[in-house]
Amino acid sequence: MPFQTKFDHRKHMERPHMQENLIYDVGLHSGADTDFYLRKGFDVVGIEANPSLCRHCEERFSTELAEKRLTIVNRAISEAPGTVDFFVNEKKSLWGTADADLMERYGALGATSYKIQVPSTRMEDVFDEHGTPYYMKVDIEGYDYLCLQALVGRNEKPKYISVEASGTSAAATMHQLDLLKRLGYSKFQIVLQNNVYKQVCPRPSLEGNYLDFEFGAGTSGLFGKELPGRWIDYDKVVLSYRWIYWNMGFVGAHIGVFRNVKNGMVRRVLARLFSAGTGWYDTHATY
């Protein structure tokens, strides 16, 4: 059964071609996105640091694991293989992270964490082991950039990538965009994750099987050719994010100067004035 706890380094040779039926779910969590991808007909490599979430997904997707349509890699992504501290959030499991600074920010919002140690691997090794996916979704709370850095110098790259934008740092998101541009990605969409539940799968399908699917809280939504928005170039996506982070500086949950305002009416007015700063975002990219 492909529930993977360690890599076979003898197999680490770069596969030459993108695998058009393969998706990487980097930040598997409870498997909500993987469920969508599998039902679409894709094979999935799910990567998750939290061992309890991996056990949950092993039970949830036992059939797909047995059919070898799903591989679960129970590792944190880091700069080097080994062991790292991982902070399991007691209030929101989506906020599990290996980033101590981010853990403290979540704690300041009343969401405390406890520390465990988990095995880690480089993203380069994941690509070598499993090949280049058609689409790679990345949401690993603070270390998303490592998944992009791992593509530098590789011959093949995913046709589509989505990566969570930082909720605290414009510089971190600009670094992601610069990496994507360096990798050859030239078209971008910014997707407001708060509104993913409104997305409707197109019919006929443009990616895999057609599904009448309802996107729940914490899901990443549509991808690739099925994204409902308009693709924009690098300069426009940079300008758009500058506007978002300017708004976030007023009302952002982590960095907004008015984030601690108690009066409900005032909070609603501020949220309306600086609405772009109240959400969280994913960046989608293609070439």
UniProtKB/TrEMBL annotation:
BP GO annotations: methylation
Stored InterPro entries: FkbM_mtfrase, SAM-dependent_MTases_sf
Superkingdom, natural source: Bacteria
Key words, A-Z: Methyltransferase, Transferase
SUPFAM superfamilies: S-adenosyl-L-methionine-dependent methyltransferases
GO molecular function: methyltransferase activity
Sequence ranges assigned to domain Methyltransferase FkbM in this UniProt record: 25-185
Name of the protein this chain belongs to: FkbM family methyltransferase
The organism of origin for this protein: Methylosinus sporium
